[in-house]
Amino acid sequence: MSGIVVESPRSPASAGGRIAPQYRRNKGKGGNFEMLAWLFMRLSGVILIVLVFGHLFVNLMVGDGVKAIDFGFVAGKWASPFWQVWDLAMLWLAMLHGTNGVRTIINDYAERNVTRLWLKTVLYVACGTMLLLGTLVIYTFDPCPVIDGVSTVSSFCPAP
């Protein structure tokens, strides 16, 4: 028993002889970013709970429930700047929260620096694309469209 050497759990050679990923060995580099990312996950999670449950309550409990969700319902909500900002905040926080979580998983499980670089590049491009498209949909959505020259007049649309 005296010949057995037990590595310190915090040493780079722990975890079955594998060397810890580069980002973990250099605690001085990016330490502040990782702390801010950790804090962002906690704060955005709490805010997302409020945004998502508010969204579900308005969409499912107020009015006729899920049967009432159609183009007119969404158009009526997005005719109000309040709901545009609400849904935009929910979109941005959910995308950034999820992207940060996947970034952490990539850092934990991608062993090669090149693999980590490409996975995070794909992740960031996908996140940016979804944020751009989602923001455009919310702010360029026309709640009072004219289809084939016919104005679809709803209660929230101004008279033609």
UniProtKB/TrEMBL annotation:
The keyword Oxidoreductase does not apply. One of its GO terms (molecular function) is metal ion binding. It comes from the Bacteria. Pfam families: Sdh_cyt. It is found in: Membrane. It comes from Tersicoccus phoenicis. The chain crosses the membrane at residues 35-58, 78-96, 117-141. This is Succinate dehydrogenase. Residues 1-20 are annotated as: Disordered. Keywords: Heme, Iron, Membrane, Metal-binding, Transmembrane, Transmembrane helix. One of its GO terms (cellular component) is membrane. Its main location: membrane. Signal peptide: none annotated.
